[in-house]
Amino acid sequence: MKTERSYPRAVVSAKGSRWVQGGHPWIYAAEIRQEPEGENGALVDAVTEKGAYLGTGFLSRESKIRVRLVSRNANDRFDAAFWKRRLQYAWNYRKSVLRPEDLSCCRIVFGEADGLPGLTIDRFSDLLVTQTLSVGIERRKEEIFPLLLEVLAEDGQEIRGIYERNDVPIRALEGLDQGKGWFCGGGSTQTEICENGVYYAVDVENGQKTGFFLDQKYNRLAVARLARGKRVLDCFTHTGSFALNAALGGAERVTAVDVSAAAIELARQNAQRNGLDGRMDFVTADVFELLPALAERGGAPYDFIILDPPAFTKSRKTADSAERGYKEINQRALRLLPRGGYFATASCSHFMPGERFERMLRAAALDAGVELRQIEARQQAPDHPILWNVPETDYLKFYLFQVV
Predict the structure, then answer these.
(1) pTM passes above 0.90
(2) How far apart, in whole angstroms, are the C-alpha atoms of residue 104 and residue 109?
(3) What would the pLDDT profile of 140-152 be if each residue is shown by its tens digit?
(4) Structural domains present in the chain
(5) 105, 106, 235, 348: which is the annotated catalytic residue?
(6) Is 105 in the active site?
């Protein structure tokens, strides 16, 4: 580097340097040849063994990901103006790729994909919900969060508070405590959103993740378009999102299934809110037990089945057992469908890549004795952008088929 730098330096191995130069923002501890000085969460420069500048990022002394890059520009100054530019860029992107009516319930910041590693910010109407998974962001949230409120206020967006959902074990990998509560604002932690014309009650304090799964937004719309006149079974319905979209799309009847009685009750309440409860049934059951029980009864009670399970694997170590689970439910669902029936299936695990998931689907169809005609292959909504140089941002697979 030709200019004098004030940040401590992390010297990176040749292998690690090639990894970073290929576009990935993470530098693993195993590739650090000289540990930088500085406290946990500090900004450090990453350099090659010959001293060439690679980028500047957050130091995490307790994580295997030792440095998370936030910039590759040696001229950047990490002041309030820098962070506000990042936030403004993220908001402008959402305004470009989402329909205007979707901006009131969307993901505003998606970590590394928005140049803010370890930070998730979701908007649910007048509430922002944050999840901070890197110590570097944790140390700067007092500066970053108010800047986001500025960006939104300047665009006429009204926000009454920021609620933190840091009750996730993964924070321990960064040496951070778990917890949840108001960062600013207050009042009720419940709000209402409207997505695809469907209204949902959202509890940001007690709901899954940040309160609601936003990544399937447009996949739900694709299901609604196919559902007209059909008898639909929505498995792993959670609070009813796919089921409600199907019903609103004109399905003849929709059965929503989830193992959680609390989730089913919320789904029932959402159906009532949308005037759809008379066209829907709600079942508390384990899908792995329900599908074979339906097969034993015989017949074809449904002509459209939706599988949107939680992630069966969160590591490579359990990917094989997860694949067996995916194959079992997909095979059983396909056996229930009549010829000409429709099928939607998804995986939200990064550790079940698209190629492997498709291989599993082919095997499940073969064992079920059916052929699949693909209608669409889809991914997460664009407010969860995928960086091609960061595979970890690519996690959601969603397929629509007809059984032929």
Answers:
(1) yes
(2) 14
(3) 999 999 999 999 9
(4) 9-71 (2.30.130.10), 80-193 (3.30.750.80), 215-403 (3.40.50.150)
(5) 348
(6) no
